[in-house]
Amino acid sequence: MSLAPDLEHSFAAKMPGISPGVYDERDFRAVAAILHKEAGILLPPGKAMLVYSRIAPLVRASGRGTFSSYIQLIESDADERRKTVNALTTNHTFFYREAHHFEHFAHEVRPRMLDDLAHGGSARMWSAGSSSGEEVFSLIMTLLGPDRQEGMAIARRDIRILASDIADHALKKAGEGIYDGRDSSGLPEDLRRAWTTTQGGNMVIAPEARAMVQFKRLNLQGEWPMQRQFQVIFCRNVMIYFDQPTKERLVSRFAQALVPGGYLYIGHSERVSGPAEDLLESVGPTIYHRRGR
Predict the structure, then answer these.
(1) What is the per-residue pLDDT across 180-221, written as a single tens digit (0 to 9) for each?
(2) Theoretical Cys-Cys bridge with 288: which of 80, 261, 264, 273, CB 3.0 to 4.6 Å?
(3) Of the residues 26, 54, 157, 160, which is catalytic?
C-alpha cells in the first residue's frame, strides 16, 4: 500500500540529505517490524534517523544500493538479519548501576547464599540482557566481597553465573573483561582493588571473577535452554524497549525461572504486572521476591 504524498513529504523532511529513493518511511516500518519480530523491540517513528545511521553501513557493505533491496536480503538471510539486530540494540550500561540493587543483594541475599554454599549447596544467577558485562561483574564482585582471600574461597564453591545478550559485539567485550579505567567510577573502591588490575589506562577484571561467568547469546523472546532455576535474576533496563504484552510474558517466564524465595531485579522505570503478580511480591524499589519461601 502506498503512502499518502503528504506523509511521504513529512518523512522526507525529517531526513535531510537522504534520498527517498534510498530510504523512506516504508523502509523504516519494514525494519521496525523485523526487529520487533526478531527481538520484541519496539522502534517508534522518532527512531527513523537512528535506523538509517546504523543500517546504512550494512547496506553499503552488502552491495545493495537501497534500503528496500537490503530489507529483501535480511528477510531471507539469517546471518544478515542477525547483523541488523546487533546494529539496532542499545548497549549502554555502567558499573554498579542502580547501586541499591547490589546493596540489597549484599545485605539480604549474599549471607544466605554463602551459608547454603558452605553447607554443600549451589548458587545459580543470571544477568539477562547483560550488555558489555558491567552488570554481571558488579554482581560477581559483590558476591565475592572486598576480602580477596575469602572471595577466592567463595569462588571455588558450586556457583554458576549466566550472562546473556542478543548483541554479539556486547558479549565479545564482556568476555574480554577490559574496560576504560574512567568507567570504574561507580564501583566501590574496596571491590575494585580486590578484583581488578590496572593496565595502562584500562581496568581489567581478575581472571578468577571472569572464570565464574558464562557469556551466551540468547534472544529473550526465544527458547531458553537452561534446565535449572535461579536464585537471582537481573534484567534491568531491557523491558523498556518492549510492548506491554511482551513485558508481561517475559516477567512471567522470569518468575517461573526463579526458585521459590529467589529474587528478580528490574530497571528503575520497569514494573511487574500481569500473571507474574501471582508469583512475585515487591520487597524494595524494583526488587521482587518469588513467593513460596
Answers:
(1) 988 888 899 999 999 999 999 899 999 999 999 999 999 999
(2) 264
(3) 54
Q: Which ranges in the chain belong to alpha helices (H)?
A: 5-13, 25-39, 48-62, 67-76, 78-88, 99-104, 110-118, 134-144, 148-155, 168-176, 189-195, 207-210, 244-257
Q: Out of 27, 110, 124, 165, pick the active-site residue.
A: 165
Q: Is 6 known to be catalytic?
A: no
* 190 included as an active-site residue: no
Contact 158, 123 (CB under 8 A): yes
What domains can you pick out in the chain, each with its CATH number?
A: 5-88 (1.10.155.10), 99-290 (3.40.50.150)
Residues 79-100 have pLDDT tens digits of 999 999 999 987 778 899 999 9
Give the total residue count for the chain: 293
